[in-house]
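During the second half of the funding period, the structural biology subgroup turned its attention to how the target accommodates small molecules. The most pressing case was pyridoxine-5'-phosphate, which had performed well in the primary screen but for which no bound structure existed. We therefore specified the complex as follows and requested a full 3D prediction, including the ligand pose.
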Amino acid sequence: MPSLGVNIDHVATVRQARRTIEPDPVWAAVLAELGGADGITLHLREDRRHIQDRDVRVMKETVQVKINLEMAATDEMTNIALEVQPGQVSLVPEKREEVTTEGGLDVIGNRDRVKACAERLTAGGVEVSLFIDPDERQIDAAKELAVSAVELHTGRYADAEDEKTREREFLTLVKAGEHAVRQGLVLHMGHGLTYRNVSRIADIPDLCELNIGHSIVARAVMVGFTQAVREMKALVAR
Ligand code: PXP
């Protein structure tokens, strides 16, 4: 059974919509832990659109399970990670104009930069995972670097518009996963997974970690909404 890393970025997205103090992603991390999360994943983006530097630092002090810090392969982020010491860093591609991480990291095209960051992080005691597309060439390139794991991007499986495409993308993930494990890499997967499409992925043999965010935050809003209104109504009606 893979471990579940809960990505709490979008709790911060709601907070940043008003640049206020709530909802606090640190509270969400604590609640996720109570719910059984094996890890907390957060993405400190260059533009700080959701998670803030303070969140990373406070989470490091409070969260007891593994912290997986997603970040771009830059010197600025590497310095932060080395100072904060999360259990794991996931290097992801980052474009300012994207809504979310759209594709996997091009390890082949950015080899020197990724290598330099991975080496600094590994030497500093931080495990490194590379978020890549389920592509054997990218896996082979990852294998050459100082990384312990790869996270295969499940977006094309999750976004498939028909069963045939979904099946094809599923088999691509299975094959790429087998290849990664044969190369001695720890296998993670994530992106776009929901309550409807996660089960088949979770059953993939040798899968060690899943990272899921948007769907969990979306459901949290819905399952908590009635209670939140009830509490406000009680105050208004008093
Ligand atoms: N894994 C990585 C590397 C990601 O960048 C993200 C999104 O931040 C996720 C997993 C989680 O994706 P989702 O929010 O679609 O569940």
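Two results from this model are relevant to the next phase. Residues 7, 9, 43, 70, 90, 92, 100-101, 131, 151, 190-193, 211-215 surround pyridoxine-5'-phosphate (CB under 6 Å). The first strand starts at residue 3 and ends at 7.
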